[in-house]
Specification:
alpha/beta; Nucleotidyltransferase, domain 5; 6-stranded mixed beta sheet
Length: 312
C-alpha cells in the first residue's frame, strides 16, 4: 500500500507522521516529535541561530532514516512561522535538501490555518454551529472559526509563544504587570479575532498544540485519570483550566517542573501560552475547552482525503 510521510517543521517542535493510504483508509504507522526549538535565540531578530540550524539538520537526518526504513513513497514537508519569517530560512531549507534530499515547502499563515481546520475536522465531528479552533505555535497562532461544512473565518497572527516569551516573560514567576502589558498588546494584535468572535459567536473552543496537550496531562495527573492511547481529543472543564492557569502564572520554572503532568519541553512557554488562552476566554462564555490531538500535519494528509476512515 502507498505510504505517505508528513514532516511539520514548527518553531518549537519538528513532527514526523507516516501513514499508509489505501483508498479511503488511512492507517497511522509512525509518529515522532523532536523539540528542535529553532526559534530560540533568533526568532525575535528574524533569523535562525547557528545552533538551531544544527539541531534542525540533525532532526531531519533522523526523520530521513525512519522514512527510508518504512519505504515511504510520498514525502511532504511544510515549514511555518519561524522559517517563513527568517532572513536565513531558505538557507536552512537548502541545507536540508542537500543533506537529506527532502524538499520542504514554506506555507503561508493563511494556508496553515486552513490545514489545521482539516486536521481538526478529521479528528472531531464538528457541529453545525460555529466553533473557534486555536493552534498555538512558537512563532504564530492560528485561529479558525468554522463548522461541520466550512471555514467561516481564519487568520494567522505572528504572536506565537516564543515571541510572547521573549517579550513579556523576562522574570520568573511572571510579574502581574507583565500579564497586564501582554493583555493590552493582545487587545491590539487580536482585534480582528475579537471582532470575528462577536460576529460569528462560536459556541466552543477547540485547542491544538503542545500547550493543550500539557494542560491535559496536568489535569489527568491531578485527577488520577488515564487517557486512551487512541483518543483524538479530550474535554477540559473550564474551572479545571482556571485552577491550572493560576498555578502556572504564580510559580517559577522549578516549581512548574514539579507540577505532576508537566511536560519538560513546555515548561518555559506554557505561562504565556496559557495566558493567551485565558485572554481569548474573556470573549467566550463556554463551560469547557476541547483539546484536539490532530492539527497541521494531519491536515496536510487529510485535506485531500476527506471522508477517509482513520485506522489507528
Amino acid at each position: 500500500m502507498p505510504k505517505t510521510a508528513i514532516i511539520d517543521l514548527g518553531t518549537n517542535t519538528f513532527h514526523l507522521f507516516i501513514a499508509e493510504v489505501s483508498g479511503k483508509n488511512l492507517r497511522t504507522l509512525y509518529k515522532e516529535k523532536i523539540a528542535v526549538k529553532i526559534g530560540r535565540n533568533g526568532i525575535s531578530r528574524g533569523k535562525i541561530a547557528a545552533d538551531a540550524q544544527k539541531r534542525a539538520l540533525h532532526a531531519l537526518k533522523i526523520f530521513k532514516n525512519v522514512i527510508d526504513q518504512f519505504g515511504v513513497d510520498d514525502v511532504r514537508g511544510v515549514a511555518t512561522s519561524a522559517i517563513r519569517n527568517a532572513k536565513n530560512g531558505q538557507e536552512l531549507l537548502d541545507k536540508i535538501k542537500e543533506s537529506t534530499g527532502i524538499k520542504i515547502e514554506v506555507i503561508s499563515g493563511d494556508r496553515e490555518a486552513e490545514l489545521i481546520y482539516f486536521g481538526v475536522k478529521a479528528a472531531i465531528k464538528l457541529k453545525s454551529r460555529p466553533q473557534l479552533i486555536m493552534d498555538i505555535g512558537g512563532g504564530s497562532v492560528e485561529f479558525i472559526i468554522g463548522n461541520d461544512t466550512e471555514i467561516l473565518w481564519k487568520q494567522s497572527f505572528e504572536i506565537g509563544a516564543q515571541r510572547l516569551l521573549d517579550r513579556f516573560h523576562k522574570v520568573d514567576p511572571i510579574q502581574e504587570d507583565s500579564i497586564v502589558e501582554m493583555n493590552s498588546f493582545l487587545e491590539i494584535e487580536l482585534a480582528d479575532l475579537i471582532e470575528a468572535i462577536r460576529e460569528y459567536n462560536p459556541t466552543g473552543l477547540i485547542g491544538c498544540s503542545g500547550t493543550f496537550d500539557t494542560l491535559k496531562e496536568i489535569y489527568f495527573s491531578a485527577n488520577k485519570l488515564e487517557a486512551s492511547s487512541d483518543s483524538r481529543y479530550f474535554v477540559l472543564p473550564k474551572q479545571a483550566y482556571n485552577t491550572i492557569h493560576l498555578d502556572l502564572v504564580t510559580k517559577n520554572r522549578q516549581e512548574r517542573l514539579s507540577i505532576p503532568g508537566m511536560v519538560t519541553m513546555r515548561v518555559d512557554m506554557i505561562v504565556v501560552a496559557s495566558s493567551l488562552i485565558n485572554f481569548v476566554l474573556r470573549f467566550m462564555d463556554i463551560p469547557e475547552i476541547v483539546s484536539c490531538t490532530f492539527a497541521l500535519k494531519e491536515g496536510v494528509l487529510f485535506h485531500n482525503n476527506e471522508g477517509a476512515t482513520i485506522i489507528n
